[in-house]
Amino acid sequence: MIIDRLYNEVERKGNVCVGLDTSLDYIPEKMKKKYKDIDEIIFQFNKKIIDCTEDITAIYKLQIAYYESYGIRGLFGYMKTLEYLRSINALSIGDVKRGDIASTADMYAKAHFEGDFETDFITLNPYMGFDSITPYLKYLDNGNKGVFVLLRTSNPGAKDIEYLDVAGKSLYYHVGDKLEEMGSKYIGKSGYSLIGAVVGGTHIDEAIEIRKRYRDMYFLIPGYGAQGAKGKDVSLYLKERNGGVVNSSRGIITAYKKHEDGLLNLEKYTREAVLSMREDIGYEG
Asked: Domains of the chain: which residue ranges?
């Protein structure tokens, strides 16, 4: 199962998920001048990031909005990056946060689990209802695909909906309980389900309860670094140093900008950022 592959990658490489949220603003001018088309500029930058971190990174997450913002050429860059990750046998998450239903969801599933935009995992938004999740489940049946579903997110606005009291408990617990039930038929040898959850690392007061309550769920944990979460915070969502991957985007892919010689040593400072984050989370490999 793909979740077992992710579990094993974390065991070998640590909990870091590198977010390839690639804006042209993040890319050195020299590289932008070297390549003519936006898709090639984006891809070549992403390739540099991947090549210098692949042995210490469990999985890569691509937020599709960054690529969509550049139109067709941006999406070509998204496609090329995913193709490259597959070619080196690296795992990927398409951060697409789809949340529609019925035939529309069927088409979204086909778009991101097949063809040009194929990824190993995608993110989903369940707050339109659980019939926004079920169209994706047929892709989980063979064990080769997985999903991370928004549970309790890291943004301040999460309290507008996710924390509403419903029958004596926060709405996100109702969502999590249902997702755990749905995921019970997709448990891998690692003990984790192909239906995982997105759990923001910035609200640590519920972390221990969430980890204890959802023992079979693998977590995608945003919020580290730029959004304020520290290693000791996000580690509360892990179980025996596994059970989740922690995403960082800007903190890694723009790390070179913090150094005077960064343009000459992009790979060095990118790698150092991953190693530092990995240590901060508590990886001891």
From this structure: 2-281
